[in-house]
Known about the structure:
The chain has 306 residues and is α+β, with helices and mostly antiparallel strands. The chain has two helices and 17 strands.
Amino acid sequence: MTFVFTALLVYLGKVLTRDSLLGLSLGRVTSVLAGNAPKPTLTIQSGSVVARGKQVTISCEVITGAREYRLYKEGGPHPWHTQNTLEATNKAEFLIPSIEHRYGGRYRCYYKTPAGWSEHSDPLELVVTGFYSKPSLSIQASTVVTSGETVTLQCGSQLGFSGFVLTKEGEQRPFLILDSVFINSTGQFQSLFPVGPVNSSQRWTFRCYGYHMTSPQVWSEPSDPLELNVSGVVQPLGPSPNMSDPKAVSKPQDYTTENLIRMGLLLLVLVLLGILLFESQHSQRPTQHEARREIRSSVKVAETLE
Length: 306
């Protein structure tokens, strides 16, 4: 009886040990599967550049569906916010009622699956604007440019901004980001942005912002808009048109304007010549009158002598 009981204990010990090892192995597999869960996508409905005081909704979207989502900001508490749902959903929305300075930064999200936590999403940069005075934006030449031309825009401010950001109307991402340079002659910090070649098929309206290196996701108020007026089309160099082709022959030029200008100049010359002739004749009359008086005086003297 003792032998049977001992054998039973040994058998149960082997079974328990095998099940424990199997459970540990499954736990490791579960951890690996969790790491392979598709990473979510993080977006902002209103765009990643938001003015101070505006409401912002950050969305974390998945393919498989989840019941728990977490959002965090790099350098901040982890997680920054958690959202739980009773049923599996493909998206969780995190609301910021009024965005302020502290919300500017880089965000990521992840979600929980039956196997564990997913990979983290790609970072999303949230920029908050309106915390410093606006810089000035100007062009080094005329705002009327020719299609195909490249121009330089200057963004500057007397505030000690570390850099400036140039944005183009209609685009979500910044057009260019450059470090600032201090100009002694003007006493301001500035950046020069090359823009071009421009064309007439789209609008070229720009604004610029300033920021400090300590908080690169916190920008100033936007500058006044600067719009480039693209005029004319640069014709590429090529062979002369075939004169035998009626479509290639240019239309006859209209010389009406040139003829009117020439007639006007001719009339002006004639008027000037008339004035000169009149003055010449008028100046000769006193001279002839004086000559007649001298002749008459000479005749009277001669008659007296006789």
